[in-house]
Amino acid sequence: MRKKTVCCIFGGNSTEYEVSLQSVTGVLNNIDRNRYDIITIGVTRDGKFYLYDGPEEKIKDDTWYTSDYITPVLFDPSNSDAPFAFVTGGEVRRLHVDCIFPVVHGKNCEDGTLQGMFSLAGVPYVGCGCTASAVCMDKATAKLILSTCGIPQAKYLCFTADEIARGADTLYDAVEEVLSYPVFVKPSAAGSSVGVTKVKSRADLPAALRCAAEHDSKVLVEEYIEGREVEIAVLHEPDGTLIASECGEIDPGSEFYDYAAKYINDTAKYYVPARINKSTQEKIAAVAKKIFTALGCRGFARIDFFVRGHGDAEEVIFNEINTIPGFTPISMYPRLMEYSGVPYGELITRLIEGAGT
Ligand SMILES: Nc1ncnc2c1ncn2[C@@H]1O[C@H](COP(=O)(O)OP(=O)(O)O)[C@@H](O)[C@H]1O
Ligand SMILES: [Mg+2]
Based on the domain organization, do 295 and 148 belong to the same domain? Predict the structure, then answer.
């Protein structure tokens, strides 16, 4: 069997740059080297693309881009066989690639921008295509589509950053007509809980709206769901079958699962499997597959829910979907797949074999 060349992309002009460094380290340490030759392309925080051929440790400790192992690389959308090119000794060299694995998260990475570029070139890549990536990144759009499929979700309103900048009382009245405090205010497209605030009174609403509007041009104000946070991994097999994992549960150990609970404090507790009823697990698995299909996803996605109530009264409410979920071996997506019978190395192989254009 001819070895395929897989190009792993890491970093990115995104607030989740550091998460990507950890995710790609996991991939590089566990990818099946008997099947795949690897090239790595790093994207700096300001969006510059470099071919990187140095040790993995320098990716993990974020010194890769100051090393001697980098070469500026260009993307040529008219060449599907060798879309990356670089100049050496005055000559243009092209890099043959069979598959691209974008191991990057958040804006400019997971939101259809990179995916559109790969699609344009016609080179196979892991994960969702351009449209599904963009739709899933934009919570307002994903919610709108899912509301037409009868997927339960928090009640919400959506405002533009322009409306928020004008700061009229009518806007706060509109919130209070539909929702009661506390409410959650969040950018429509962001991640890592950046710009998310739990608002307990009208007095705190303007600042929370302005804060969310710093991160996106659309802002959601949502009903507060008092429930447990439960996540599920969906894998789209190369033959087209969908696998939904066991669920995992997060207890943020703080008021909500904010940036500090995710990356700084050690308060969060993770449970695999989630402490939910068997029937609720089955319900989430079925709803997750329906969501994955409705949003046109491919490859993989982690879908996050709230479970409200206990026992027979457990109610399942969709929160959000991540099309390139955190991907270290101990991140929720790989942990859930591993628990459900697909070990990390095998998962990477299946994703690469299921890559599409
Ligand atoms: N409607 C809501 N009710 C209760 N908690 C919420 C709600 N929306 C968000 N949260 C809390 O805020 C966190 C981050 O919000 P989320 O919508 O998942 O954005 P992000 O894409 O930044 O992860 C959630 O994990 C949860 O703890
Ligand atoms: Mg989230």
Answer: yes
251, β-bridge pairs: 269
CA dist 255 → 70, 267, 323 (Å): 43, 11, 26
Ligand 1 centroid–CA 170 distance in Å is 25
CA angle 21, 45, 133 (to 5 degrees): 75
Give the residue from 223, 238, 258 where a domain finishes. Answer: 223
* Residue that is written with structure tokens 């509109």 in the block: 174
Which ligand sits closest to the CA of 199? 1
Task: For residue 346, report the distance from its CA to the centre of ligand 2, in Å.
Answer: 26
Whether residue 212 contacts residue 197, with contact meaning beta carbons closer than 8 Å, is answered with: yes
Does the predicted TM-score (pTM) go above 0.70? Answer: yes
Q: State the helix-helix crossing angle for 278-294 and 139-147, rounded to 10 degrees.
A: 110
List, edge to edge, every strand of the sheet that includes 84-88.
Answer: 74-75, 84-88, 91-95
**Ligand 1: lining residues by beta carbon, under 6 Å:** 154, 184, 186, 190-193, 196, 222-225, 229, 252, 256-257, 304, 319-320
- Residues near 134 by Cβ (< 8 Å), separated by ≥ 6? 111, 112, 141
Q: Which domain holds residue 164?
A: 156-223
Quick one: which ligand is closest to 221's CA?
A: 1
Query: What's the total number of domains in the chain?
Result: 3
Q: Residue 217: which CATH number?
A: 3.30.1490.20
The Cα–Cα gap between 332 and 230 comes to: 10
**Tens digit of each residue's pLDDT (9 = 90 or more) over 54-85:** 999 999 999 999 989 999 999 999 999 999 99
